[in-house]
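Attaching the record inline, Q. Sequence:
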Amino acid sequence: MSGVSVIKAPAAVHRHTSGAVAGRDLRVLLVIPAVLAIVLLFIYPFGYGLLLSLQPAEGGWLENYARFFSEPRLYDTISTTLKISLPVTVFNILIALPMAYMLRVPSLQQRLIAALLVIPMTLGTVLVAQGMLTYLSPNGWLNRSLLVLGLVAEPLEILHGPLAVELSLVITGFPFAFLMLLSYVTGIDPSLGRAAATLGASPLEQFKRVYLPLLVPGLVTTFCLVFVQAFAVFPSAVLLGSPAGSTRVISLAAYEAAYEDFNYSMASSIAIIMGVVQLIVVLLALGIRRAAYRGPASGGKG
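Structure, as predicted:
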C-alpha cells in the first residue's frame, strides 16, 4: 500500500500544479481587457497629449508652459478653479457624512432617499444649469415668490457668479458623495457600535471612536472623486457664472485655446497642468489619510 501511495503522489501533485497554472493563465486572460482599456482610454491619450504639449507653434519645447505661468489670465485660472471646487467638495462631504451615518440601517426611508438623489446625477450638468437659469433668474420662480411674499424689495442677484456655479456643483456632487459614503458606512459591522454601547459609549462617542476611524479611507476616496469632478467644472461656469471674469476656470482656458485659438498644443499643455494640479490635491489628501489613519482596516500602514 505504501508503494502505491508513493506512485500516486507525484501524479496528484502534477494535477494540482497543472490546475494552479491553468488558474493563473485564466486570471491573466481576464486582466487583458482591463489593461487594454486603460492603455487605450488613459495611457495613450495622456502620452499623446503630453507630446503634443511639448510641440508649440513657436519657441522651445517648454514654451507653452512658460507662457501659461507668465500670463495672469492663464495662471489665475488655477486659483479660481480651486476657490470654487475645494469649498464645494468639503461642503458636500460635511453634509453627506452625517446624512449617510443616520441612514446606515437598511430601511424604506434609506432606499427612497437614495433613489431620489440619483435623479440629479442622471440629469447632467447642462440640464441642471438650465433648470437653475429658469428657477433663479430675476424673473424666475424663486424671485417671483419672494417678491409676492414681500420678503425682498428687488430680485436677488444669484446667477452669473461663483455662488451659482457652486450651487450647481452641490446639486450634482452631493448625491454622489452621499451614495459613496452610504456604501462605506453600511459596510461597517453594526455589532461594533452595539459593543461600544454596551461599554457605555454614547451615540456621538460611537461615531467618533468606532465609525469615523473606519470611515477615513472612504472619506478620503470620496473627497478625491468629488474634488476631481468639481475641479473639471465647465458647463456650469459658462452657463451660470461669468466665464470672462470670476468663474473663468482652467477647463475654460483649455477650451478657448483649442476651439477659439485653434492652438491644440497650448490646449494640451493646459490640460496637463490641470491634471497635475488635481494630482497634487489628491496626493495631499492621501498623505493626510496616511498621517491621520492608523486603524485596523489598514493594518497600521494607513
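Confidence is low (pLDDT under 50) at residues 1-7, 295-302. The longest helix spans residues 2-53.

More tomorrow.
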